[in-house]
Amino acid sequence: MAGELGPNRDLIGISGGRARLCTPALVLDLDVLDRNLAAMAAHCRGAGLALRPHAKSHKSVAIARRQIEAGAIGICCATIREAEAMVGAGIAGVLITSPVTGPAKVERLMALHTETDSLMVVTDGPDNADALARAAARAVPARPLAVVVDFDVGLHRTGAATEDEVAVLAQRIEDCDSLAVAGVQAYAGHLQHVADFDERAAQMTIETGRLRAAVARLAEIGLEPAIVTGGGTGTHDIDHRDGVFTELQAGSYVFTDVQYNAVALRRDQARPFEPALFVQASVVSTVHDSHAVIDAGLKSFATDGPAPVFSDGVADGVQYQFMGDEHGAVVYGQVNERLKVGEAVSCLVPHCDPTVNLYDHYHCVQGDTLVDIWPVDARGNP
Description:
This protein is α/β, with parallel strands linked by helices. It has helices at residues 30-47, 61-69, 80-88, 103-115, 126-138, 163-174, 197-220, 258-261, 352-356, and strands spanning 25-29, 50-51, 75-77, 94-96, 120-123, 145-150, 179-186, 227-230, 247-248, 277-285, 291-294, 309-312, 319-322, 328-331, 344-348, 361-366, 369-375.
């Protein structure tokens, strides 16, 4: 519905509409997005990995569909809300990568299980596995729920702690008529932003050795995993090198951000993916000689990492500074820059995933034209 597209809907299709957006606005460059999707799909084909990218980065059905059209075999989701959005839109091959716990969420999981026969969910402990088994046994139609054993390879967030625990949990799942062992997940989130490629690769090799041992342990008990899934944008050119992973879960590559631009993502090419996601803001005050004030502050960007970086509308060397909930500063420093009230500036986002979650819409552009507005379908919690 047009009324649901926000205040910029009348600018769709108008040349120069990008500069006229009501701000702050989340802006997505579609040409760059598609190049990033094609680049990762080509990498995975060359590396012999399936690609099941993570929707927690974009929370968008439209982007998930583009990823699948580019060659992805399915989509990862971090939350039950994200999974509901994807399954509800007909996206197949959804893997929920965090344990689903508590009666309310487990019931929602079972509702999804009845809607699609390609849903998978991870678990990392016997209590959760038992709860899933009981709920799946009551589900209609009755069929086993595919469960992936989550293995902790150093992040210490979720995941069975040892190879033996992985084997015991997998056997417990296998012994339940209402569950089926689908594979193993291992995500080294603590390594994704290690800046130096060789240092990151060396640390990942250690963790992959532990994963290899867990996979071998499963094979010993007759439960060799059909999939070994994990990895991310930071290790996308490392995860395949030891021949253990069968599929990649990278998510942030679709946009990149300030954090990932500080990481050498490949040994021969530090930035194989281009910035595609920006926050466009407008100048609201110029009363100070040292800086101008824009309408994008703490409520417009994730604040768990570095500051945003200006990408358009200001001179090189100008820096962003937070100035409150609704405001940020364009700090001139030594740059001979003077902006005018109403001028548009754009910022590369500092951390894409939580920044996206602050917005209702993507403003999709090609060049200077706003070509479409997409909802952020799965934003928010729970």
